[in-house]
Structures are given as C-alpha cells and as structure tokens.
Amino acid sequence: MNITQLAPLCVIILFAAAAITFISKRDAVQRRIAFAAVTLTLIFEALLLASVWDAEPQAVHLGGWQAPFGIVMVVDQLSALMLLVSSTISLAVLVFATGQNLQDEDDEVPISVFYPTYLLLLGGVSNAFLAGDLFNLYVGFEILLMASYVLIMMNANTPRIRAGVTYVVVSVVSSMLFLTALGFIYASVGTVNMADLSLKLATLPVGTQMQLHLMLLIAFGIKAAVFPLSLWLPDSYPTAPAPVTAVFAGLLTKVGVYAIIRTETLLFPDGDLSTLLGVVACLTLLVGILGALAQGDIKRLLSFILISHIGYMIWGISLSNELGLTTVVFYIAHHILIQTGLFMVVGLIERRAGSTNTRRLGGLIKIAPVLALLYFIPAMNSGGIPPFSGFIGKVGLLQATVERGTTLAYVTAGVGLLASLLTLLALVRVWNKAFWRPAKEAEEPISALVMAEHSDDPAHYESKPIPVSMMASTVSLVVLGALITVFAGPLFHLADRASDNLFEPDRYIRSVFGDQAPTRAQYLEDYQASQEDQ
Amino acid sequence: MIIDLSLILVMGVLYAVGVYLVLDRSMTRVLLGLMLMTNATNILILHAGGPAGLAPFYSKETAASDYSDPLPQALILTAIVISCAVTALFLGIIYRSWLLSKADEITDDAEDIRVAEQDAFDKEEDAAAGVESSEFDGDEETREREYQQEEEKRRKLQTSMQPQVARKGE
After folding, report:
1. Which element (helix H / strand E) includes A61?
2. What is the pLDDT of residues A63-108, one digit of tens each?
3. ipTM of the complex in this document
4. Taking the CA atoms of chain B, what radius of gyration do you get in angstroms?
5. Across chain A, how many H-helices and E-strands are there?
6. Structural contact between residues A367 and A461, judged by C-beta atoms closer than 8 angstroms
7. What CA–CA distances, in Å, run from B46 to A215, A309, B55, B76?
C-alpha cells in the first residue's frame, strides 16, 4: 500500500493525542504525549513528502466512499511541504513553550489547557492543508481558529482580553463569509468537493463565477491578513504569550495564503483577478512596512512586517505564471521559518531585558551577545540580503515579473523592492536601538540594563533565566532558516514540481475521480453541447 | 430554483441586525450580532438545498427527487456546533472581562494611541549629529583628561545605582 493512503494520520495522531492529554493534569505527562505526537507526525510527514516528491497529486477517499459523495484528502507537493514545515516549527515552538512554562513554575497558569489546545491547533492546520473538500477546509479552519482563540487569551489579563476580542470577532466574521460563500457555491453547482467544483464552476455564468471567486478571496484574505483586511493582526498578535505569537505568525496567515493559492489554481483557474491581486499586493507591501516603521514595540513591528511580507506572496500569485507560483511556494516555506524564528528571539529578548519596547532597550550587544547574533541572522534574511533565502525568493519574484511583463507587474516589483529596503531599515533600527546604543541613551532607560552595561561582566546580568530548551529551539530554527539557502536547489525543485501540478488542475481531478475522469476542457465542451441540445 | 420568500426576508433582516450589533463597542451586543449572523448564514445554506421534500430516509418506493437534500442539513448541523462553541467561549470572555475591569466595552489599544500620537521627530535618528572624535585626535594630555571624565561619570552612575542593589540583596 502506498504511504499517501495513510495521510489522514497527520490529523488523527494530533487529535488523538489532544484527547489523550486530558487523562492527566500533570505537566510532565502532557508534555511527553505532545512531544511524541508532534515528533511522530513530523517523521510521518517527511515520509509523505518523500513519497510525493516527483509524483502527481494523490487522493485518499476516507472510509472508501467514492468522490464526490465521500470526503477526500489530497496530498500533493504543496500540501506535503506545508505540512512538513508547519510541523517543524510547531515542534520548535513546543520545545520553546515547555521551557518557558517549566521555568516560571506559576501555579496560576492553567497549564493543563495549553498542550491539548496546541495539538488541536496543529491538527486543524494539517486538516486544512490536506482538505480536498471545501467544507472540510472550513472545518479545518474552524478547528484551528477555536484553538487559537483559547491560546491567544491564555492567562487572560485586560490587554489580552481586548486583543482577543478583536481577533475572535474578525475571525468569526471571516468564517461566516466563507460559510456564506459555501452556501452560494452549493446552491449554484450542488457540490462542495474541490475537484468536482473545478469541473463544474467553469460552467456557471461569468458574473456568478466572479461573485463566488471574490467572496472566497475576501474570506481567505482576512485570514491571510491582506491589506485592507489586515488591520486586526497587529492589534491582536503581539499581546499573546511569546510562543503563541511565534506559532501564529508562522502558521495561521499562511493557511490563508494556501487557501488563496487553491482558489486561484484549482477552483477558478480561468477567472482572471490578477490585476486586483496585483494592486492589493502593492498596497499590502507598502502599508505593512510603513506601519512597521512607526512602531516602537518589536513584537508590533514584526507583526507589521509579517503583513508586508504577505504582500510578496500575493504578488507572486498575481503574476499567474509558473515561476511566480514556484517562488511563492519557496517563499512561504522561507517565511514561516524566518518569522517564527524572529518572534522566538524576541521572546528571549523579553525574558533577558524585561521589555520589547525599543524606547526602553539598549546595550543588549554586551549583555546578551548570543541573542544579538540570533536576531541579526534572520533579520538580514528577512531584509533580503544575499546570500540568504529571502534574497533568493525576491530574485525569483523579479524573474517571474519580467516573464509576465505587464506594467502592473513592474510597478509591483518596484514596490516590492522598496518594501524590502524598508524592511531592512525597520529591522536595522531595532538592531541599532536595542542592541547597539548604550542602554542609558534609551528614551526611558531600564536601570538594571544601564547598570549591567557598566558592570565589569555584562554577560552575567541577573534576569529571568533562559533555559537550555528555549535557547536550543531558537538556535535550531535560526540555523534551519539559514540552511534554506544551502538547500535552496532541492527546495526550488520541489516548489517547481508543486507549481507544475498546481497549473494542471486536471491532474488533481484525475487523482480524485480516477483515470477516466474528464478534463476541464472536455467537461465544459460536453456541458455546452448538452445545453444546446435542450 | 424555488425559494421561500419569507425565509429570504428573515435571512436579510438577521444579517442586517447582526451587522449593526457587531459594530457596537459592547461585547454582549457583539456576541448577539454574531449569533444572529450565524443563523442568517444557516438559513442561507438551508435554501441552497432547494425546496423541502421528504425526510431523506432511503426507501425503494420513493423517487430520488422527492427527498430533501440531506447535505445542507449536515452542513448546518456542523455550523451550529461551531457557533455553539464560539458563543460559549465568548460568554467566558465577557465574564472574564467583567471580573478584570468591570467593563463590557472594547477599549482602544494603548500602544495604538501612543504610536498615533508620537512625534515625527526621533531622538535617536533625527537629532543633529555630534562632532565625531577619535582617540587618535589631540595630544596625550587631552586624551588622559577625557578618559578621567568618562571614568568619573561611570563611577557616579554606579554609586547612584548602588542602593537598589543593596535592597535586592536583602
């Protein structure tokens, strides 16, 4: 039996583990179960990726029910890569979170909630990546959102409640839009299976297609934080606990981008919204980065940079050529690792210095030289300095722009380069203020930092200790982010295969319905012929 | 497709009232708005199944077209479960907010306000650049004097911080 037939295990293992963690309230037991589950999933997903490396998409019919009646899960290069990268960062964040929880030993924190919720979040993400059924995608979204509502308000205080309410309301409204779009889609074609939709949506009148297309894009655009639907993100992410912010920043917006890719390539490959997407990409890039420049708090600054960089992915999608999409797949993998790594480093800075506000920080290069290095590498990577992977991604996007050759594409490219430069400016400003300047020159200096800087041994400054697990997980993510540069060749090959399959929705349809399935062109022709007969 | 006008009207009113309530600052009203909008969406999906028919239990005598479409009902059921969970969680949030701050209102983000009100002038970056000096400038005497001044400053700073450390040690 082919290993892809076991793909639902990626979801089942995590959900089962989430249920099992409830048998014990003890942190140690829950931690071991969570570790075992995430590691097992990670190994399995690596095997899954290896098995679809050069293959066409593979469908799994759950319970043996034939499509379009049963639920299908589809594994292709894109979903397998997303699964693997998301499990990698979630393992790192899990290690990071256990370090933080164990060290603080705070009895007030309901630790028994964290592990099951975290596992549910990952299960929901996996389900969304594997879904071959639009309603299953909705359920995946809802599971991950429910878990994220709980995580973002862990140990709730007043600011977290405020941030959480914004997040919950915006997410619920976006889900409702998605559900409404689903209702319309079902009313117009009578199916929610994505392969079936790919065949049947093309038979609808152009206006109806456009309306459904736009509704889906708006729903996913809110989740992916695309301007002007991004305003909720910087208000809600930064207040959450550091590990939660890290995993949200890495994963959740990318699930939205993933859904946008599926909408554009599978559901509406003929619907041409590339002009709209191009304009939106420009605005996202620009508004995001200008917002980042105004921020004083590093977490908020990174949240704005996150929005800005979603713009790069939308830019790639808007080019609607194969190279553009290849680069988007590469860029998503790069961005998940880098963004999570940066947020984890900021979590460490918060522990070491007691604040993440650049108005207060200073002198960290003496006090925490390792953190300085850990911040510097992903910061340069995110700013697109060669030879890091951010640079490779941007070169790919530029090449795809030239291939596309429209005026809008060139304008977007210009804005993209400007945003890249400004990202560098924003991140280097943080570097200058938090690390490089003397602590006493800060606007509201922290006296402990000033003293430590002037003592004989700044590195032995008294602060909340940074446990080995937190340090090790951060280091490994930063190293992994840098390693993408080294393994850019195989990764680009994989991304190329992924976009190759994405551009041939007929392969996806064949995998779900078997070899005798009609191609999209054939189906449309037959449909039009039967309409003329009547 | 046959649709039920009264249900469509109900759906429209629910959406309208829901949107109005969600825009309020009071969390309880926002919750009510979300509940209304979810139910409006459920009615929409109910419509997607076409006209009502017989209960979808299979029997040989009934023609396929006489059944109600069971799929929208399954979708609605899932949506109801999800909205139930969201409602429960949101009630929990409202209660927690009441415990913490005796308020049902969503306030503005303090950091947002600070960023909006901040001066365009940045002390670090926009201040006039100081005159660059190097230890290779000037003669040995000046260098020695500057070094002494620096040392003096450092010692003063340390002594001014001393009491806090002593308190920590106790």
Report:
1. strand A58-61
2. 888 878 888 999 988 999 999 999 999 999 999 888 876 555 555 5
3. 0.83
4. 34
5. 22, 2
6. yes
7. 19, 39, 14, 7
What is the number of domains present in chain A? Answer: 1
Nearest in space to B51 (alpha carbons), one of B75, B72, B80: B72
In terms of CA atoms, which chain A residue is nearest residue B123? A443
Q: Which residue has the tokens 């946008």?
A: A260
| Among A153, A294, A432, beta carbon nearest to B93 | A153
CA distance A496 to chain B (A): 36
CATH architecture of B2-56+68-108: Orthogonal Bundle (1.10)
- Residue A24 C-alpha from the chain's centroid: 31
User: Average pLDDT of B75-79?
Assistant: 91
Contact check, Cβ <8 Å, B48/A164: no
Chain B residues touching A171 at Cβ < 8 A: none
Interchain CB contacts (distance < 8 Å): A and B: 113
H or E segment at A74?
A: strand A72-75
pLDDT tops 90 at residue B97: no
Residue B155 forms contact with A (CB below 8 Å): no
Q: How many CB atoms lie within 10 A of CB A282?
A: 24
Q: Is the pLDDT of residue B13 over 80?
A: yes
Mapping DSSP onto H, E and C, the string for A3-37 reads HHHHCCHHHHHHHHHHHHHHHCCCHHHHHHHHHHH
The tokens describing A419, both together, are 């945003």
Which residues lie below 8 Å from residue B62, measured CB to CB, with a gap of 6+?
B54
How far A510 CA lies from chain B's nearest CA (Å)? 24
Domain-by-domain residue ranges, chain B?
A: 2-56+68-108, 139-170
Cβ(A482)–Cβ(A338) below 8 Å = no
CB A89 within 8 A of CB A477: yes
Residue with tokens 């009578």: A190
CB distance A91 to A36 below 8 Å: no
A384 occurs within a structural domain: yes
- Whether the full predicted model's pTM is greater than 0.90, yes or no, is no
Residue A6 pLDDT > 60: yes
Neighbours of A416 (CB within 10 A): 25
**C-alpha–C-alpha distance, residues B76 and A161, integer Å:** 30
- Residue A192, pLDDT > 80, answer yes
**Contact criterion met (CB < 8 Å) for A146 and B89:** yes
Nearest-angstrom CA–CA distance, A141 and A390: 28
Q: Which tens digits make up the pLDDT trace of A227-251?
A: 888 888 888 888 888 888 999 988 9
Residue numbers of the domain that contains A339: 272-485
Is A512 inside a domain boundary? no
